UniProtKB/TrEMBL annotation:
InterPro entries on file: DUF2187
Organism of derivation: Edaphobacillus lindanitolerans
The protein, known as: DUF2187 domain-containing protein
Amino acid sequence: MRVAFPAKQKEPSAFVAARSTGELISFVRNNHEVFGTIVKILENSVIVKLSKADARRIGAASEMTVVSHKHYTVTE
């Protein structure tokens, strides 16, 4: 017999709760500051769309990348 337990749901931090898709963020990767737009918000990170030029500068395989909530700032 197999018993399954529901996943514990925790409240997101105020910073994460305030994020929305379409926001512009900046972060540093491979010693380059790059900018991108939030496409999807996850529990511990965001999926970001970069420009082709920024993707090339940081050596990303595509124009999409994952960035931890701890490693970006929201630009205004």
